[in-house]
Amino acid sequence: MALLHHATLTPTKKELLDAWLPSRDWAAGLPELTVVGGYRIDDPDGEVGMEGIVLSRADGGFVHVPLTYRATPLDGAETHLVGTTEHSVLGTRWVYDAEGDPVWQATVTATVLEGGSGAAEYFEVDGVRESREPLVAVQGSGGPVDEPVAVPVHLVGSDVGGEASLTGRWAGGEGVLVVVRSAGSR
Question: How far apart are CA 173 and CA 26, in angstroms?
């Protein structure tokens, strides 16, 4: 379950993405992007926040960016750092391109191969849990994969090939968001 906070982020996730995306080869020349929504997956140890954000493109397509949020920097992952943000409840958060985060790799791979879904989302208000439906519903396909590695599908609709997948559905669209394939086929 993903505990969400009514919080302010400075800079916002969208501002972080706007600054970071132009540095990605796969994002070159993308038209203006608008956040559609996201989904969460649970870190079994409860330490790393994991979210996939879906954005709509001005040309009608969709972009998927999975992120992880950490309370401390991830050793050796400097090339995957999207940036830092100040969370009004949790303090400084290091935000990473999830593909380079081993916790995301393990968790999303398990979600896909076990046929799992996204985390239940809730806020806690005055000690009462208030559920929220994610704006992006995800489901793993299930299935065995030898030496699995998860690969995000950034440009939704692109065929990146995989043996198993995480599919998402949101208002106005749906598509494969993550594929899991054998490490040898990467």
Answer: 20
Q: In this structure, is the dihedral angle defined by the CA atoms of residues 70, 53, 88 and 86, taken in order, positive or negative?
A: positive
Residue 116 to residue 150: CA distance in whole angstroms? 14
Q: What is the pLDDT of residues 144-160, one digit of tens each?
A: 899 999 999 999 988 88
pTM: 0.89
Dihedrals φ, ψ of 26, to 5°?
-70, -15
Closest CA to 151 of 105, 101, 102, 103: 105
Helices (H), the chain: 13-20, 102-113
CA distance 47 to 45: 6
Q: Does the N-terminal peptide bond of residue 11 adopt cis geometry, omega within 30 degrees of 0?
A: yes
Burial class (CB in 10 A: 0-12, 13-18, 19+), 103: buried
Tokens of 186: 């990467």
